[in-house]
Amino acid sequence: MSHNFETQAVRIQTERSQFSEHSTPLYLTSSFVFEDAEDMRASFAEEKQRNLYSRFSNPNTTEFVDKIVVMEGAEAGYAFATGMAAVFSTFAALLNSGDHIVSSRSVFGSTHSLFTKYLPKWNIETSYFKVNEVDKVEALIQPNTKIIYAESPTNPAVDILDLELLAAIAKKHNLLLVIDNCFATPYLQNPIKFGADLVIHSATKLIDGQGRVLGGVTVGKADLIKEIYLFSRNTGPAMSPFNAWVLSKSLETLALRVEKHCENAIKVAQFLEEHPKVNFVKYPFLKSHPQYEVAKKQMRLGGNIVAFEIKGGVEAGRKFLDAIKLCSLSANLGDSRTIVTHPSSTTHSKLSLEDRLEVSITDGLVRCSVGLEFVEDIINDLKQALESV
Ligand SMILES: Cc1ncc(COP(=O)(O)O)c(C=O)c1O
């Protein structure tokens, strides 16, 4: 019998121990014991599916992965210590020296560093397309291209890419489509439904949802995950059982939390859109968003990130942050607490204006990760901070 998202989030559970616990316990163990020499031999020969060592698998990480696999409509998955470990290990496991990636230019900063600084060390090069130039993707494909990569919505400018269109291009050229689905979560968007081969999450964000633990996961086609698993089991980026236990509990409330985050976020976006000190607001489910129709097609709700530009450039952005009282100034997002950041004076300050504009980061752009506080309190804090600009 197949169940709905919320039911799976609560009911998927690792096998109970002899204590018949209702809630999955924490299996803090590095390794597992064998009955005898034959059991040990057969287990290592993979004639049996069982836990051997927690770098390979652990009941807590398995429970977490099983949930994400079902939520994303995938075949298999592997859990990592962080989102970046998931991104790196996915590329490292699937690519060889001389391979080529075609990627959206608007990717998370560390992913961009991976493309520009680290993968070239292994002779893996990347070509980029802008979020509004998906029509130019085909022209970037070379005989050695293996992967098309994108985030949607993007960090921090909340642009949307058409997943169905990217999947059609990938399929036509026999390439893998890999999507970082971190901003949407498996509740709001399932890229596999639109043709993606692999989906990556930083579980550090809305999946945890309370700013407590780091984590990452890659899910998708079983043959690809097998390669990623073998690479990871040897190189060691595994998620800790404790983090998997926390994250699996978090998934029980993902639908409820994300619904509320989105309800708050659209109200914040609507408030900002009317404010005279705001040049523009980018929120996927506002009609004014340039890719509103695409967002509606592929997302259940608009997510919890609102990007907006304050009039007055860098100085106004900094003043706004200084005047914030309730919300947090922090590098994270997807927390129960509302967080505001000013990318052009912080995370993206080392980029030239031209490079920043390529990824839609204007001088006065603020990223607001809308939390679970009472929405009027969030709006009042943003209002008083805007008044001081
Ligand atoms: C879109 C996106 N992908 C990946 C990551 C990396 O995740 P982590 O910090 O868990 O390594 C982040 C972190 O902010 C992100 O926003």
UniProtKB/TrEMBL annotation:
Note whether Transcription occurs among the keywords.
no
| Cofactors demanded by this protein | pyridoxal 5'-phosphate
Pfam name, any one: Cys_Met_Meta_PP
SUPFAM superfamilies from the UniProt entry: PLP-dependent transferases
Gene Ontology molecular function: carbon-sulfur lyase activity; pyridoxal phosphate binding; transferase activity, transferring alkyl or aryl (other than methyl) groups
**What does the record give as the reaction this protein catalyses?**
O-succinyl-L-homoserine + hydrogen sulfide = L-homocysteine + succinate
EC number from the UniProt entry? 2.5.1.-
Name one process (GO BP) from the record: transsulfuration
Its Gene Ontology cellular component terms are: cytoplasm
Coiled-coil segments on the chain, per record: none
Metabolic or biological pathway: Amino-acid biosynthesis; L-methionine biosynthesis via de novo pathway; L-homocysteine from O-succinyl-L-homoserine: step 1/1
Keywords linked to the UniProt accession? Amino-acid biosynthesis, Methionine biosynthesis, Pyridoxal phosphate, Transferase
Task: Please list the residues that carry the modification N6-(pyridoxal phosphate)lysine.
Answer: K205
Q: Which CDD domains match?
A: CGS_like (cd00614)
Description of how the protein assembles with itself and partners: Homotetramer.
Q: Which family does it belong to?
A: Belongs to the trans-sulfuration enzymes family. MetZ subfamily.
State its role. Catalyzes the formation of L-homocysteine from O-succinyl-L-homoserine (OSHS) and hydrogen sulfide.
Q: Which PANTHER family match?
A: CYSTATHIONINE GAMMA-LYASE, TRANS-SULFURATION ENZYME FAMILY MEMBER
Q: What is this protein called?
A: O-succinylhomoserine sulfhydrylase
Tell me the organism: Tenacibaculum skagerrakense
Q: Which gene encodes it?
A: metZ
